[in-house]
Amino acid sequence: xxxxxxxxxxxxxxxxxxxxxxxxxxxxxxxxxxxxxxxxxxxxxxxxxxxxxxxxxxxxxxxxxxxxxxxxxxxxxxxxxxxxxxxxxxxxxxxxxxxxxxxxxxxxxxxxxxxxxxxxxxxxxxxxxxxxxxxxxxxxxxxxxxxxxxxxxxxxxxxxxxxxxxxxxxxxxxxxxxxxxxxxxxxxxxxxxxxxxxxxxxxxxxxxxxxxxxxxxxxxxxxxxxxxxxxxxxxxxxxxxxxxxxxxxxxxxxxxxxxxxxxxxxxxxxxxxxxxxxxxxxxxxxxxxxxxxxxxxxxxxxxxxxxxxxxxxxxxxxxxxxxxxxxxxxxxxxxxxx
Length: 338
Ligand code: GDP
Fold this sequence. Notes:
Elements: H1 4-15, E1 21-24, H2 33-37, E2 45-48, H3 54-64, E3 68-71, H4 78-83, H5 85-106, E4 111-117, H6 140-159, E5 163-168, E6 171-172, H7 181-193, E7 200-202, E8 208-209, E9 212-213, H8 214-224, E10 233-235, E11 241-242, H9 243-254, E12 261-263, H10 281-287, H11 295-314, H12 330-333
Parallel strand pairs: 1-2, 3-4, 4-5, 5-10, 6-9, 7-12
Antiparallel strand pairs: 8-11
The structure holds guanosine-5'-diphosphate.
The site of guanosine-5'-diphosphate (GDP) has 17 residues, from helix 4 and helix 7.
């Protein structure tokens, strides 16, 4: 519930008059800023749970007695999965099976959405990927996600469960985690434009990604659970852009020079997927889903929001966001807001 998609999905479901139960991991520093940012914190029934602990999953099912379960819990950062391959396998891979097993025991009629990922295609040469494109995962994260993908398929055919994989291409927003490249760039250029940082260090600028707007993607997740039969679907924009283009658009929106953005070797991954572009025509044909926000608009939304946040911080305002408490920005935060 505390991640980007969990928060937008909760908002969407609340607007549809669902009763929403949200699981979260107990942390010494609570992580609810997105739910406050979207102004939905008070409308959610929270249940502490961890995808590593089957008992906490069965307790969650008993407490919430759900009709639909959206499984978004993961170690979701590709870069970190190279440093933590076993942890990523346990959370992002086995976590799905713990959930499937508990749901199978509790009530096989519960509908399950599983967050699959475009990263599963990995190093596949075909330029546009759809539900029939073979997978060639290229990171511990993608391999763990592919394991989950096949388990969902297996429980569907072996036990007749309504379980679906949403193969979502990158989807971003002002609530995206700061470690992902779009938000790293929007936050970075915002600081540079306000004189709070001198430059921004990135890694591979040649990689291409298919970036959409996250609030539109959570609606697609819900649609996947409202069909007559369970199936897997790609959600994407059918456009891909390089990190260089992302940097160009972000600098333009912030009114700064692209020379402040530097590519450094330490930000490169051991192996990087070069191009991801998705064909969403099946989702469009079956239930009319299509992306609405363009790449340029998305980057503008994110940069403008981060500039506004830093301006508010400079004025000494308190409001829900992540950058002010991230270790990354500690050097900026030593400066006192005026
Ligand atoms: P991913 O597609 O799930 O890995 O999403 P990310 O936003 O983490 O990365 C997208 C692409 O941006 C990858 O090809 C990265 O190698 C590339 N990239 C270049 N510089 C950076 C950086 O500084 N941080 C991150 N996260 N990605 C970067």
